[in-house]
């Protein structure tokens, strides 16, 4: 068998590459989604 088959989705699941890419972009920004200033409003939109 050349390819592994992941069956333990109860513990965790593999993350799709496009999700990792988007998460890295989001985590590179700052802002409190509860704040009323511009960075906060942008963070709220992302959430």
UniProtKB/TrEMBL annotation:
Its cofactor is pyridoxal 5'-phosphate. This is Aminotransferase class V domain-containing protein. It comes from marine metagenome. The lineage of its organism: unclassified sequences, metagenomes, ecological metagenomes.
């Amino acid at each position: 068998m050349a390819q592994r088959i992941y069956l333990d989705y109860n513990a965790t699941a593999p993350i799709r590459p496009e999700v990792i890419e988007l998460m890295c972009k989001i985590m590179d920004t700052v802002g409190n989604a509860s704040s009323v200033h511009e960075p906060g409003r942008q963070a709220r939109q992302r959430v």
